[in-house]
Amino acid sequence: MLIKQKYGCTALIAGASEGIGAAFAFCLAAEGMDLVIIARRLPQLQLVAARIESKYKVKVLCISCDLGSADATQQIMEALNGKEIDLIVYNAAVSIIGPFLKNSAKDHNQLARVNMITPLNMLHAFGQKMIERQRGAIILMSSLAGFQGSGFLSVYAASKAFNRILAESLWYEWKENGVDIIACCAGATSTENYKKTKPEKTGFFTPRVLTPGEVASECLGKLGKGPSFIAGRGNRLASFIMQKILPRKTAIKIMGDTTRKMYRI
User: Fold this and answer.
1) What is the mean pLDDT of residues 233-253?
2) N- or C-end of the chain: fewer Cβ atoms within 10 A?
3) 98-135 pLDDT, tens per residue?
4) What is the DSSP string of the chain?
């Protein structure tokens, strides 16, 4: 119950219909927090809500919203109708795999809106209220792909670098105002979307694929302890080698070669 005691009663999770977002929803409900869960697919959200309400006896509000819409934050604020939000998890993301020019500018722009513009707008809107209350928490999902250039994941990787730097910057700005922010940098995670891509195994030394529950649980344990962290011991070791030992162009080559092999590009 420490999270509820420290931050408040209600958590909002964007991108909560499955995977890491749904795992965060279950973890926070287990802490006794009421939830607002957001995704495009209302029926899938309602299934998640029903399971949570049955198991944890908390209140769950479902909001169907395309987080790539220009007015997504406004839609969410209107649906909340003044409800106070104490903790935010922004997990929603679009991932485009493949050569940059093989995908349309329209698709890249949609990714940028979901992965960067909407979380930016949400942090501005909700962060102001948290600063005024001198209490709150925000989790932005980032990725190991955002630590260096990542061929065939170029725009996704860039968006995740944006999320990490935004979270780390606001951690510094807001830490004296009772608002904790952290970037959760995940590696490969066994979400439904990850499984649908049918990635090939890339080698014996590749870090273990984590479960969504492992990522969410570890992140909540790190909240309030620093500006960012990498989920999973194997991912932390791999990142240390890539960022601290190898030349940057080698790290970039490894990322590109790995993605090419995983997705048979």
Assistant:
1) 95
2) N
3) 999 999 999 999 999 999 999 999 999 999 999 999 99
4) -HHHHHH-SEEEEES-SSHHHHHHHHHHHHTT-EEEEEES-HHHHHHHHHHHHHHH---EEEEE--TTSTTHHHHHHHHHTT----EEEE-------S-GGGS-HHHHHHHHIIIIIHHHHHHHHHHHHHHHHT-EEEEEEEEGGGGS--TT-HHHHHHHHHHHHHHHHHHHHHGGGTEEEEEEEE-SB--HHHHHT-PPP--TTSPPPBPHHHHHHHHHHHTTS-SEEESSHHHHHHHHIIIIIS-HHHHHHHHHHHHHHHTT-
